[in-house]
User: Which sequence fits this backbone?
């Protein structure tokens, strides 16, 4: 059986739901359950995690056959969230004339050039177009037959070549002089009116292209000769002077002085990084590309503030320090939590739901009931697991009657026995074999502000304290290393079945631990019975002592 819930929905207007940086079972399961609830109501949300999923949570997800949420690195604004001009690209074979007109229409001073596969091939500016029109070679043409027809608003008479490359000649001399002075070749493009002797000479010379000006038709006899010699012919409504000018504008835009290696930005780059780049380069326009160098459009520096923030909903936390990197750049829509209020703030009013219960999933269970949305078996299993985890199977002093009631209802839906399943879950989570000291300490590591300082508390649920005890000196050394950034760093190793915790701390925190927990004298690895809750026991005790010292 596999949970029929897809996290892969359209990226348009998605709202991400996630918990804190060290996702535990409540944090992860709350995100999944709330996303299911909201999507059942027609919203477009996706559960995410912003840290490594621990052993217990993996067991829970596997047990109820639910796919783990994808990892979210940050919520910083990316280029793809900025309203850049996705139409501001043009094929490198487009004529100078059409390119300039397109740039005028799009109000652009520069534009990326792409090939048939949308790969970025260069960048051209209006300044370079102007330089070309003033100083460029007006005798050479490198373009397509269709470009010339379009640019001249002409008529297709004979077409044998897709690409036209050659030297432009205007039949301005008398016929005899032209024949004597000008030697025509297959690389010539002749602009001529109703001068039939010159046309006969051009056809006999097998020129590349004849452009007939003033809409003068070619006599049938000459037309047949031209067709037999595979000579391209285009009819122009303009006179010779105007035609010569427009033929030059029909050149491919890539033939002028373009920037073959423009400074680009990836659509996944951060807005803040782009601002640093823009300050250094001082350019006005930047082609937007992906990792394959496909050009997606153009970002003008004037549009940098026209962006959409990532919409997010926070569960199981309400502080910047525990949330996603770049959370200050996101749009927080809602917070659902059961912790004390922190310093997180929003620019506009939001839905904030907080209850003094043992688990966030207890709040979310109530939301299902209030909204009359049926709870699937596997979602019920996840929420039950979160409640059992956070309340230590109701042994934690944070446990409330609401937690117990919700758990009993969810257990019936999930079809599990609370005590039997709880034992399996904690047994699976308690093994610390193969986990490094650094990973174990950071598994559930949280920092808290105390005045102008901070303290850090890590809590590990395991029945294998003997394995930690065997490496006690290494654990203490790591805590001492971390303490350079904190007033104190404490690791609580909680044994749910003994209903107490062993305490390790940085060396200088001995007096703090002694005072906080009313001990005769603290020592590394001391066991304190009935100490299981970080929120209601560990943190308040430490804060009461430390607030007097800082």
Assistant:
């Amino acid at each position: 059986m596999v949970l029929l819930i897809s996290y892969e929905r359209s990226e348009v207007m998605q709202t991400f739901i996630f918990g804190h940086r060290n996702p535990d079972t409540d944090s992860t399961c709350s995100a999944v359950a709330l996303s299911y609830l909201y999507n059942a109501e027609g919203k477009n949300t996706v559960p995410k995690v912003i840290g490594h999923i621990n052993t217990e949570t993996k067991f829970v997800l596997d047990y109820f056959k639910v796919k783990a949420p994808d990892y979210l690195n940050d919520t910083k604004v990316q280029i793809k969230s900025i309203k850049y001009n996705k139409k501001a690209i043009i094929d490198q074979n487009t004529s100078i004339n059409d390119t300039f007109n397109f740039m005028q229409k799009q109000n652009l001073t520069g534009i990326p050039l792409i090939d048939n596969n949308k790969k970025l091939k260069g960048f051209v500016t209006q300044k370079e177009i102007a330089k070309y029109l003033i100083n460029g070679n007006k005798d050479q043409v490198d373009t397509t037959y269709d470009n010339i027809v379009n640019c001249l608003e002409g008529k297709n008479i004979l077409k044998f070549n897709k690409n036209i490359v050659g030297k432009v000649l205007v039949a301005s001399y008398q016929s005899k002089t032209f024949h004597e002075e000008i030697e025509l070749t297959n690389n010539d493009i002749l602009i001529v009116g109703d001068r039939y002797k010159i046309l006969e000479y051009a056809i006999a010379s097998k020129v590349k292209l004849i452009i007939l000006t003033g809409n003068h038709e070619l006599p049938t006899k000459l037309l047949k000769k031209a067709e037999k010699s595979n000579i391209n012919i285009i009819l122009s409504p303009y006179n010779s002077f105007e035609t010569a000018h427009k033929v030059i504008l029909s050149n491919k835009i890539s033939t002028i002085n373009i920037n073959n290696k423009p400074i680009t930005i990836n659509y996944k780059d951060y807005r803040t990084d782009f601002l640093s780049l823009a300050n250094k380069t001082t350019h006005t326009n930047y082609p937007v590309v992906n990792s394959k160098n496909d050009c997606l459009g153009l970002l003008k520096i004037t549009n940098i503030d026209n962006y959409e923030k990532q919409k997010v909903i926070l569960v199981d936390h309400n502080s910047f320090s525990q949330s996603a990197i770049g959370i200050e750049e996101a749009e927080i829509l809602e917070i659902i939590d059961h912790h004390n209020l922190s310093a997180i703030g929003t620019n506009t009013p939001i839905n904030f739901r907080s209850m003094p219960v043992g688990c966030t999933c207890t709040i979310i269970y109530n939301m299902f009931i209030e909204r009359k949305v049926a709870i699937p078996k596997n979602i019920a299993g996840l929420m039950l697991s979160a409640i059992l985890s956070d309340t230590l199977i109701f042994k934690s002093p944070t446990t409330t009657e609401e937690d117990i009631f919700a758990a009993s209802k969810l257990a019936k839906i999930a079809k599990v026995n609370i005590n039997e399943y709880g034992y399996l879950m904690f047994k699976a989570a308690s093994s610390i074999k193969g986990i490094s000291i650094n990973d174990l300490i950071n598994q559930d590591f949280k920092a808290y502000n105390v005045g102008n300082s901070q303290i850090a508390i890590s809590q590990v649920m395991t029945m294998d304290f003997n394995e930690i005890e065997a490496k006690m000196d290494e654990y203490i050394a790591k805590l001492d290393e971390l303490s350079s950034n904190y007033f104190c760093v404490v690791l609580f190793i909680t044994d749910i079945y003994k209903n107490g915790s062993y305490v390790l701390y940085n060396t200088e925190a001995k007096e703090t631990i002694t005072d906080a927990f009313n001990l005769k004298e603290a020592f590394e690895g001391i066991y304190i019975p009935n100490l299981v809750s970080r929120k209601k026991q560990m943190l308040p005790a430490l804060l009461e002592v430390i607030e007097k010292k800082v």
